Structure formats: structure tokens, C-alpha cells
TrEMBL record:
<keyword id="KW-0106">Calcium</keyword>
<feature type="transmembrane region" description="Helical">
    <location>
        <begin position="147"/>
        <end position="166"/>
    </location>
</feature>
<feature type="transmembrane region" description="Helical">
    <location>
        <begin position="451"/>
        <end position="470"/>
    </location>
</feature>
<dbReference type="Pfam" id="PF14703">
    <property type="entry name" value="PHM7_cyt"/>
</dbReference>
<feature type="transmembrane region" description="Helical">
    <location>
        <begin position="359"/>
        <end position="378"/>
    </location>
</feature>
<feature type="transmembrane region" description="Helical">
    <location>
        <begin position="398"/>
        <end position="421"/>
    </location>
</feature>
<feature type="transmembrane region" description="Helical">
    <location>
        <begin position="549"/>
        <end position="582"/>
    </location>
</feature>
<feature type="coiled-coil region">
    <location>
        <begin position="275"/>
        <end position="302"/>
    </location>
</feature>
<keyword id="KW-0175">Coiled coil</keyword>
<keyword id="KW-0406">Ion transport</keyword>
<dbReference type="Pfam" id="PF02714">
    <property type="entry name" value="RSN1_7TM"/>
</dbReference>
<feature type="transmembrane region" description="Helical">
    <location>
        <begin position="6"/>
        <end position="27"/>
    </location>
</feature>
<feature type="transmembrane region" description="Helical">
    <location>
        <begin position="628"/>
        <end position="645"/>
    </location>
</feature>
<feature type="domain" description="CSC1/OSCA1-like N-terminal transmembrane">
    <location>
        <begin position="5"/>
        <end position="168"/>
    </location>
</feature>
<comment type="similarity">
    <text>Belongs to the CSC1 (TC 1.A.17) family.</text>
</comment>
<keyword id="KW-0472">Membrane</keyword>
<keyword id="KW-0812">Transmembrane</keyword>
Length: 718
């Protein structure tokens, strides 16, 4: 019955994948959908909308597969940056690991499991009525010498994974250094962020910064930009931008009404010309912006933080990595992010608000974990028909229908869990945004870690242990019983996680290609939107959503490859789909908004090490239950060696991802000595980190404005 339900789930998801691929091949060629399926090509001018009808647009074609496959890694690097390369290396790494694991699991371990008689003999003439346990290690007889095959498989895969982890860490470290050497001079390479600036009576923050760095860094100090609190100003500018956009559309679209009544709800009163009304309102908003900018420019609005620039990368690194003051709470420094990566709302919060926010985030994450157990309980109830009949006795007659019961137990639980998990990444990103990070990339990395460990705890451990949160915690408070508990619980959930891989993996990856939510939003909002076809923002890949998903499937593959190797073919299909689909998305859809230089890879490495250690713990427990105590004893060196290997990698490679070496910085500085453009670049540093809210732009078209325009409409055309 379990196998039958699983096959039903596989059939449904396979049909959905084929449907999504076919629809994508057709919809991506429709001019009205270019902003959804090829926004990057449209923004770069590589794709043009034409109104001529072509029959080819209505036929599904596989040409996009070839175009997604062709670009080399170097082309992907130049096109989407090192972060995109790291993401694709994660998928390639997973393909390599599970190709070997799949060969061992399907062609070696699976026949061994099937020929066991611990549970029952497999009826190959009626596979759909077999329990999935007969395909797992549970069916191998206790004390059987065949278990040494599983033992050997654990050692082989562990050694292979560690070898690949070392190779990938080394490869990406070299890529990161090479990427740095090949880069043009960037503001963040010469700039540090200084916080907790002490200010003496009668001096401003700017005076304190200038005097301090001229005294202690006289040969390298170049200039600085003081950060100001501009949260109110940003709100004013956003309101003005919305009104400006509305005015532009009113002027360019003749079909729009040009008049409205100035009374209640626009139904009563005298008629008013909307164009004149909006222009006057824009002039008032401009005046408010000027007044607010004047107030922000006062010393009282200084945030006691500044971006300090130096005339060399090495000088900036010295200031960033050394304690500048005897009092370590003053003159706190860190490397500055890219100018467009700065999270400006960070500076509008007081120290106390930031400190409280960190505590609030911790409490909120704990509460979210507890609340998320509710859908976990629902999911576990759906996988158990007898439990479902107890909860809902009036559905007993419906549940006796074979197809209905197969859909409910095989497909519906994973679908419900998928829908609930959709809300986790944006929540975690919001939590990270109020936690006190100065850049959007740091927020993304923090959210990535939060989503990963939330998924591991709530999707893996909560489903495996199937108890209250207190029960789950109590298990981990007794480390001696962890292997035995996991050895019993993990194999029992094999069918659920296979269905989870099919539903969440196959379907979500196909949905990533199909972009259903952006498509629906585009179709719904297009008749009412006030944006032209050229006014859209090219999206970036939400790494905090997709990296944890790929890593979690890697954890499932690691833990189940020797327990229930039937999961491996489904994982390989997922990673193959992910490889071609994400390459297509990087080429046609996504454009990077920031570049971390590959700093997501340490997260990948740590997750894989955790997966290996978890696999070893389960192996110890399973061999103990199977009365093969010698194998359990011989497994013990594996987690110890894995953790030692991780410590070596941490010492060998992690510093490269934290900061560049003095050797690299000095070498790069020497290359720039004869660069004629460096003088112009150093001049630009004076305004590189100016808050966008303080930049001059202009909304109204009135040339006789009493004061010089603070804003220029060019900002809205970019």
C-alpha cells in the first residue's frame, strides 16, 4: 500500500513537471510574458518584443535547453558573478556524490535489502502492495554478514564526500582569489565602516573622524562620508516617486481620465485637472524633501558612523582588522560592503534598539519553530490512515477508495509541508533584516543559515521523531541514546521523504522554471499597473531560499543512501533538473544585486559535514540494532576523522573567505600604481557611499522652482 501511494505521488509530480516544461516552452515566447521569463535579456536589450504573429510561438520547443547547457563556467562567472558559480558548484557537487552513492545503493545495497527475510520476502509480482521497509536495511537479517556491505558503503561514500569537499573548497578558494585579482578597483576594497565614533564637546562626527585618521593613519587616509539617519526622508522620497510615476502614466496614456472631482471619494465637488493637481502636489513634496534634507544635514542627525576611504587596499585592511582605540567599544571597524549593497535602515536604529532586536529575533525563531509543529502534526496524521479515521470518522467511507487514500497518504502530506515552507524564507529574511547587519548580502547569508537549520530541525527531526518539541529536545539531552533513537525513527520515515523529494524537489524546481507566482501577478496587475513595459526590476536569485533546499536534499541523500537507497534515483532526477533549470534562470531571468565573492560556500561545507556526522550516528545505531556490534565500533572513528577534516579545512580555507591576505592586497595595489584612472577613481570615493536619500533628483517639470532641484528624473529612468 505504501509503495502504491508513493507511485501515485511520483506519477502526479511527473505529470506536473512535464506540464510545466511544456507551458514554459510556449509562454516564454509570448511577448506579453517577456518580463516574467526573460527579464534579464529584456533589460540587457538582447530580447525584443514584436507584435507580429508567429506560429512557432504556440509550439513547445526544447531550444532553451541547449542554450542553457552551452555557456561555460567562465561565461557564467562573467555574467552572474561568483555567487552564481558557487550555487552551480553545489549542484555539481551533489550530482557527483549521489552518482556514486546511487550506483552503490541501487546496484549493490538494494538487491541485498530485497533478498533479506527479516521482515518478509518481497513479492516481485505485486510490488505495489509491499511495504517500503522491504527495500530498506530493515529487511536485512539481524547479525547477517551482508550488513558489512552497508558498512563498507558508509566508509566509501564518507571518504569520497570528504575528498570532494576538499577539492571544491580548494577550487572555490582559488576562484575567489582569481576573481579578486581580475576585478577592477571597487569602492569596498578601499573603504571601511567605522562605528561608535566618540565625539568631544563642540565637535561633529566629521571633525572627529578627520582628526583621528589624519593623526593615526596619515599616509593612507583619503576621505570619509558621515552616515546620517534618513528613514523619514526615504519615506518622503518613496511617496514622491509613486506620485511621479502616476503622473507620467497619466500624461502618456490618453485613455486614462484626466479629471476628477475634489469632493468626497471623487464623486462630488468641482472638476480638477489631474495633471495640474499632481504637478502642484509634486512641487509641495519637493519642498518637503528639501526641508527634510536640510534637517538631516544638521549634526544632530549624524549616526556616529562613517565610511572611511584609504588610498590603498592594504591601508583599508589594516584599519579594518586592527583595534583602533584603547577602549575596544570605540572606533569599531569592519570592511565596507558594496555601495549598492548597504542596508541603510540599519543606521537609523539606536544601539539599544539593535540589541533588543537581536533578542526579539531569537525569541521569534523559537516561537516559529514551536508553531510550525502544527503543520508537522497534520502531515504525520495524513500519512497514517488509521489515525486519520480516528480524527475524522465521517471520512471513513471516502478513505476506503484506493486512489483517494493513495493521494492523501502519498502526495498530500508533502504538498501541505511544501506550502507551509514557502512562508519560512521571507520570514527569516525579515528577522535577519532587524538583527543588525549593515548589508543586504549579510542579511541574505544570515537568512540562509536560519532557513537551513529551521528546515533540518522541523522537516527532518520533527517528522522523524514525531513527538512534541519537549520530547524532541529530551532525546538530544541524552546523547547516549541519540544513535539508537535515530536508527529506529529514520528508516520508518523513508516513504515520506521519498515523496517529499518528489513533491518539494521536482515540483518546486519546475515551478522555479515556470515562475507561476510572477506570471499570475503579471496577468492580474497588468490591466491596473502604472508601469510601462520598460519599467521593471530584474530579480535576483533568493539564495536564502534555494541553497537551504538543495542542502536539505543533500542531507536526506546522505542519511538514507545506505538505509533506503530507493531515494537516490529521485534525488538524482532532482539535481539534474536543478542543474539545467538554474543555468537557464541565471542566463535569462536573474541578475545579481550584490556579490559576496563566494562566501556562501562555507555554509555549504558546514552543512555537508553535519550531514556526514548525522549519517555516522545513524549507522552506529542501526548496526547496534542489527546485532553487529563490531561494525558499530568500527564506525566510531568516522565522525572523529570527519570533524578533524573539517577543522583542517576551517584552518586552511576559511580565512580566505573572511578577508584577503596581505600578499593579495599589496600585489593588487602595486598593479594599480601605473593605472592612469586611479586618480579619477579616488575622487569618486568621496561620494561613493553617500546615502541615496540625499542624492539630488527632480520630480516636477517647473523650471522656475525657487531652489535648485534636489532630485533629477534620471533616477527614475534607471
Amino acid at each position: 500500500m505504501i509503495v502504491s501511494a508513493l507511485l501515485t505521488s511520483v506519477g502526479i509530480n511527473l505529470g506536473l513537471c512535464i506540464l510545466f516544461f511544456t507551458l514554459y516552452s510556449i509562454l516564454r515566447k509570448q511577448p506579453s510574458n517577456f518580463g516574467v521569463y526573460v527579464p534579464r535579456l529584456l533589460a540587457d536589450g538582447k530580447s525584443k518584443k514584436t507584435s507580429h504573429f508567429h506560429l512557432e510561438r504556440l509550439l513547445p520547443t526544447p531550444g532553451w535547453l541547449r542554450r542553457a547547457w552551452q555557456p561555460s563556467e567562465e561565461e557564467l562567472l562573467s555574467y552572474s558573478g561568483l555567487d552564481a558559480v558557487v550555487f552551480m558548484r553545489l549542484i555539481i557537487f551533489s550530482l557527483r556524490v549521489f552518482s556514486l552513492a546511487g550506483i552503490i545503493g541501487v546496484f549493490v545495497l538494494l538487491p541485498v535489502n530485497c533478498t533479506g527475510t527479516q521482515l518478509q520476502q518481497v513479492d516481485f509480482s505485486n510490488l505495489t502492495n509491499n511495504s517500503l521497509d522491504v527495500f530498506s536495511i530493515s529487511n536485512v537479517n539481524n547479525g547477517s554478514k551482508r550488513l558489512w556491505i552497508h558498512f563498507s558503503a558508509v566508509y566509501i561514500v564518507s571518504i569520497f564526500v570528504c575528498y570532494l569537499l576538499y577539492s571544491e573548497y580548494k577550487y572555490i578558494s582559488a576562484k575567489r582569489v582569481a576573481y579578486f585579482y581580475s576585478s577592477e578597483p571597487q569602492p569596498q576594497q578601499f573603504t571601511v565602516l567605522v562605528r561608535s565614533i566618540p565625539v568631544s564637546v563642540g565637535n561633529s562626527v566629521s571633525d572627529s573622524v578627520e582628526s583621528f585618521f589624519k593623526e593615526y593613519h596619515p599616509s593612507t587616509y583619503l576621505c570619509h562620508v558621515v552616515v546620517r539617519r534618513t528613514n523619514k526622508l526615504r519615506d518622503l522620497i518613496n511617496d514622491a516617486k509613486k506620485l511621479y510615476t502616476r503622473l507620467i502614466h497619466l500624461q502618456t496614456e490618453p485613455s486614462r481620465p484626466k479629471f476628477k472631482r475634489d469632493g468626497c471619494w471623487g464623486l462630488f465637488g468641482r472638476k480638477v485637472d489631474l495633471v495640474d493637481h499632481y504637478e502642484k502636489k509634486l512641487e509641495d513634496m519637493e519642498e518637503n524633501v528639501r526641508l527634510e534634507q536640510s534637517e538631516v544635514s544638521l549634526a544632530g542627525e549624524e549616526a556616529r558612523a562613517a565610511f572611511v576611504s584609504f588610498n590603498s587596499r592594504y591601508g583599508a585592511a589594516i584599519a579594518s582588522n586592527m583595534q583602533l582605540s584603547i577602549n575596544p567599544t570605540y572606533w569599531v571597524t569592519e570592511q565596507a560592503p558594496e555601495p549598492h549593497d548597504v542596508y541603510w535602515p540599519f543606521f537609523s536604529k539606536s544601539f539599544m534598539r539593535k540589541w533588543i532586536s537581536k533578542i526579539v529575533v531569537i525569541v521569534a525563531c523559537v516561537l516559529l519553530t514551536v508553531v510550525f509543529l502544527i503543520p508537522i502534526v497534520i502531515v504525520q496524521g495524513l500519512t497514517n490512515l488509521s489515525q486519520l479515521e480516528i480524527w475524522f470518522p465521517f471520512l471513513k467511507s471516502i478513505l476506503t477508495i484506493t486512489f483517494v487514500s493513495q493521494v492523501i497518504t502519498g502526495y498530500l502530506p508533502s504538498l501541505i509541508l511544501l506550502l507551509f515552507l514557502k512562508i519560512v524564507p521571507p520570514i527569516m529574511k525579515f528577522f535577519s533584516s532587524i538583527q543588525g547587519y549593515i548589508s543586504n548580502s549579510e542579511i541574505e547569508k544570515s537568512a540562509c543559515n536560519k532557513v537551513l537549520w529551521f528546515t533540518i530541525w522541523n522537516v527532518f527531526f520533527a517528522n522523524v521523531l514525531s513527538g512534541s518539541i519537549l520530547n524532541q529536545i529530551s532525546i538530544f539531552l541524552d546523547p547516549k541514546n541519540i544513535p539508537s533513537k535515530l536508527a529506529v525513527a529514520v528508516p520508518a520515515q523513508a516513504s515520506f521523504f521519498i515523496a517529499y523529494v518528489v513533491t518539494t524537489g521536482w515540483t518546486s524546481t519546475s515551478l522555479e522554471l515556470f515562475r507561476m507566482i510572477p506570471l499570475i501577478c503579471s496577468l492580474i496587475t497588468k490591466p491596473f499597473t502604472e508601469r510601462t513595459d520598460d519599467e521593471f526590476e530584474v530579480p535576483s536569485l533568493p539564495y536564502h531560499r534555494d541553497i537551504p533546499r538543495v542542502l536539505f536534499f543533500g542531507l536526506l541523500g546522505m542519511t538514507y543512501f545506505f538505509l533506503a537507497p530507493l531515494i537516490l534515483p529521485f534525488l538524482l532526477v532532482y539535481f539534474c533538473l536543478g542543474y539545467i533549470i538554474y543555468r537557464n534562470q541565471f542566463i535569462n531571468v536573474y541578475a545579481p544585486k550584490f556579490e559576496t565573492g563566494g562566501k556562501f560556500w562555507p555554509i555549504v561545507h558546514n552543512s555537508m559535514i553535519f550531514s556526514l556526522v548525522l549519517m555516522h550516528a545513524i549507522a552506529v545505531g542501526i548496526f547496534t540494532l542489527k546485532k553487529l556490534s563490531l561494525a558499530s565500533t568500527l564506525i566510531f572513528p568516522l565522525p572523529v576523522l570527519t570533524l578533524l577534516f573539517n577543522e583542517y579545512c576551517r584552518k586552511r580555507f576559511l580565512p580566505i573567505f573572511i578577508a584577503y591576505s596581505a600578499e593579495s592586497l599589496i600585489k593588487k595595489d602595486r598593479e594599480d600604481y601605473n593605472n592612469a584612472t586611479m586618480a579619477e577613481f579616488f575622487d569618486s570615493l568621496a561620494t561613493a557611499y553617500q546615502d541615496p536619500a540625499l542624492l539630488p533628483i527632480k520630480y516636477s517639470a517647473n523650471p522656475d522652482s525657487r531652489s535648485s532641484p534636489l532630485l533629477s528624473s534620471a533616477e527614475f529612468e534607471t
